[in-house]
């Protein structure tokens, strides 16, 4: 990538300025609602993880203060919430270390996103860099389809790869999804002998949860309204979760991507 490498301070300033971290545009009331629904074990909010702990609302809230940097004031019920940019950068550096190991060992990798409108360029850059270092990036179960409930009724969605990044597609569009089902379909195909089992998954939402649940070393991205992956990290099912707003304008993630790839020694 022909972009300048930001220092940690420069990246922190960029994250806050572009609302990737710092005061973010994720509503506090939505965050709290999602924490309650995860505590109630609603599948949509578990991302395919079979969590071992009970995870009460208070425990989830405390976890998100610690791992994501949400406002710790329990009386803050409405308005915007926060993500600590230093926690974002710390997790990026941990992710970079694992990517560097993958490149050194030429591992087999899966990449997938439930937020293609925002995060897709990050995954594309990571996939290209890993392939350039000799990693095998898998693309199984392309075209696998299922029905999804929408306001218009049940619609068909299928797995589509953009280069080597899996996303959910339908009706000529790429779709946001929390569902673990597409990743489960990928892993069923691989477990049936139609490809090597991945050493590493880089993903978000249910794509990450389903991979981590199956014991794959998983690196994830998650917003402050998505506590399941952070709980999975706390239980050892997810290797590293980077807290960030996962749906800002795609080009705003470029400095973050350059920082990640540089610290993983995937680019000079």
From TrEMBL:
Q: What is this protein called?
A: Phosphatase
Q: What is the lineage of its organism?
A: Bacteria, Bacillati, Actinomycetota, Actinomycetes, Streptosporangiales
UniProt organism field = Actinoallomurus vinaceus
Q: Which Pfam families match?
A: Phosphatase (PF15698)
């Amino acid at each position: 990538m022909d972009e300048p490498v930001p220092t940690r301070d420069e990246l922190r300033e960029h994250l806050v300025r572009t609302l990737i971290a710092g005061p973010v545009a994720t509503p506090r009331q939505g965050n709290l609602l999602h924490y309650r629904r995860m505590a109630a074990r609603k599948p949509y909010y578990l991302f395919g993880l079979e969590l071992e702990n009970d995870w009460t609302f208070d425990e989830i809230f405390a976890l998100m203060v610690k791992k994501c940097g949400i406002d710790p004031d329990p009386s803050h019920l409405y308005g915007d919430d926060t993500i600590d940019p230093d926690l974002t950068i710390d997790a990026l550096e941990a992710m970079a270390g694992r990517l560097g190991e993958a490149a050194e060992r030429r591992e087999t990798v899966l990449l997938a996103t439930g937020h293609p409108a925002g995060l897709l360029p990050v995954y594309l850059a990571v996939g290209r860099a890993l392939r350039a270092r000799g990693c095998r990036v898998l693309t199984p179960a392309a075209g696998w389809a299922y029905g999804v409930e929408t306001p218009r009724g049940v619609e068909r969605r299928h797995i589509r790869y953009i280069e080597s990044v899996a996303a959910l597609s339908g009706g000529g569009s790429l779709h946001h999804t929390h569902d673990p089902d597409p990743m489960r379909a990928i892993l069923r195909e691989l477990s049936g002998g139609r490809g090597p089992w991945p050493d590493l998954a880089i993903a978000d939402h249910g794509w990450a949860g389903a991979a981590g649940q199956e014991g794959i070393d998983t690196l994830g991205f998650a917003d402050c309204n998505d506590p399941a992956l952070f709980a999975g990290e706390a239980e050892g099912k997810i290797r590293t979760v980077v807290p960030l707003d996962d749906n800002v304008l795609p080009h705003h993630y470029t400095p973050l991507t350059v920082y990640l790839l540089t610290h993983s020694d995937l680019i000079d």
